[in-house]
Design brief:
12 helices; globular; 12 strands; six-stranded mixed β-sheet; alpha/beta; Rossmann fold; 277 residues; 41% helix; binds NADP nicotinamide-adenine-dinucleotide phosphate
Length: 277
């Protein structure tokens, strides 16, 4: 029987997930289907209640439903840690959930710079929004003991310290020049640098030699921050790397095979993104 999964959001037409999962289904020869379902906030609880009746074994969740999905399912430790769910699956009638942005981010670093976590115990993270939560949670899981969290709204960075503990060092934008001196890991988790958003202007000349730079924005694919890091010969991970790695677990849960992120798949989606840049 054809196994079906989907991405649920509003709007959802922009989503690249059907192409991403469609690639794996075809390559692995699986009798499966992955669709996009545009569902309003009012219709969302009913949609989830009838997931099995609609023929689905699970789904991805995108905006604006991530918090509602968390509340309407049985979240695992990662979803609880982030406070939002982006991947749901039916497990003997139970609707369970996780947050795969955590492993998407960590997976992108592991692929770009294997052993990164053995070479640094501290990080500078820009952004205390939803993505920032998944990133901070993942860094703490991997043993990073000092996270300088820089956010425009300082109070939000401070709330992270209350939630995630003393490894979070809340900081203001004006602290950045000092924090970047000698830093071994820099992550942009703000929307700055994204198409249609203000640019992210940073001088990264003070980063340690051998530092790793991640920018989770994926339109454009290579942000000015990543261009500057590549010019300095630093290892980099981009937003598409994170998107692809976050998709692995959902596919495994729904279709029973753990897929590999491939260069061919990256290039297929990169071409799509470049066309939108
Ligand atoms: P969010 O919850 O709305 O958070 C936005 C963050 O950007 C906040 O920290 C916000 O600071 C900061 N920000 C926005 N405009 C700013 C400005 N003009 N100056 C300084 N800071 C500014 O959004 P999100 O869900 O965390 O997403 C953030 C970015 O990550 C987006 O570009 C999104 O596309 C990307 N993302 C990528 C992936 C992936 O798989 N690659 C996954 C998730 C998200 P304040 O708190 O002060 O408002």
């Amino acid at each position: 029987m054809t196994q079906r999964a989907c991405i649920v959001g509003y709007p959802v037409k922009h989503s690249r997930s059907p192409k991403l999962h469609g690639y794996w289904l075809k390559r692995l020869g699986i009798d499966g289907e992955y669709r996009a379902e545009e569902i309003t906030a009012a219709g969302f609880p009913g949609f989830l209640q009838n997931l099995a009746a609609r023929g689905y074994v699970g789904c991805n969740i995108t905006q604006p439903h991530k918090e509602a999905a968390f509340a309407l399912s049985e979240p695992d430790a990662r979803a609880k840690g982030v406070g939002a769910a982006n991947t749901l699956w039916l497990d003997n009638g139970r609707l369970r959930s996780t947050n795969t942005d955590v492993e998407g981010f960590i997976g992108s670093l592991d692929a770009a710079a294997p052993g990164w976590d053995k070479r640094t115990s501290s990080a500078v993270v820009l952004g205390a929004g939803g993505a920032g939560r998944a990133i901070v949670y993942g860094l703490i899981e991997r043993g990073i003991t000092t996270i300088h969290l820089v956010n425009r709204t300082f109070e939000k960075a401070h709330q992270f310290r209350t939630q995630y503990g003393s490894s979070i060092q809340p900081a203001r934008w004006e602290d950045l020049p000092g924090l970047l001196q000698g830093a071994g890991l820099l992550v942009n988790a703000t929307s700055l640098g994204m198409k249609g958003q203000p640019p992210l202007d940073l001088d990264i000349s003070g980063l340690a030699d051998g530092a790793v730079v991640s920018d989770i924005v994926y339109v454009p694919l290579e942000t000015p921050l990543l261009t500057a890091a590549i010019k300095r010969g630093l290892k980099t991970a981009n937003g598409l790397d994170m998107l692809l790695h976050q998709a692995v677990r959902g596919f495994e849960l729904w279709f029973g095979v753990r897929p590999e992120v491939t260069r061919e798949q990256f290039e297929m989606l990169a071409a799509d993104i470049r066309a939108a840049e």
